[in-house]
Specification:
single chain, 169 residues, 5 helices, 2% strand
Length: 169
């Protein structure tokens, strides 16, 4: 008697809701919850370690992690949807859009405004996290580079989530 591969069964369970259109929320919403709960810790740990290794800047990891939680919560749940709405697209999270109706213009505007807000929100946390205070470009360069890197990675992930069911507007 031949047994079936259990991986096919789990794949079917994962895809089955897509065929039935039985989705409770958009992929953007669900991924943002994962981002808020777990991924921020990973990002903050990475940023702290990156600052130490690449720039030799001793810091308090818990403040870098706290900065990520704070900026993500404010940026993605308030700032990005607000600026997306102000620029003509009220459904940043894709809760009301059908496949092919999600507008990438509103997504990118919201994400860009969220990135700028992230820099403003996270900077005080970053400055307080430094065990030895830096001056000038030595202070700003690592902060900008680390934030740019992590935000670009998150932009690509969120873009991948919405790109196949979206349109440019």
């Amino acid at each position: 008697m031949k047994t079936t591969n259990p991986n096919y069964f789990f794949l079917l369970l994962l895809l089955f809701p897509n065929f039935l259109l039985a989705n409770a929320g958009s992929p953007m919403i669900w991924f943002s919850f994962l981002h808020l709960i777990w991924i921020n810790f990973i990002i903050g740990t990475f940023e702290s370690k990156f600052l130490l290794e690449k720039f030799n800047i001793p810091n308090r990891k818990w403040l870098i992690v706290a900065a990520n939680y704070t900026s993500m919560f404010l940026g993605y749940y308030f700032i990005a949807p607000h600026f997306s709405f102000e620029n003509g697209y009220p459904d940043f999270w894709g809760m009301k859009s059908r496949v092919g109706e999600y507008e990438l213009g509103g997504f990118f505007i919201g994400f860009l405004c969220s990135f700028v807000a992230t820099l403003i929100i996270e900077f005080p946390f970053y400055w307080l996290s430094l065990k030895t205070k830096q001056q000038g470009w030595r202070l700003l360069k690592p902060f900008f580079l680390v934030n740019l890197l992590t935000n670009c990675i998150m932009l690509l992930i969120y873009f991948a989530i919405v790109a196949f069911s979206a349109k440019w507007s």
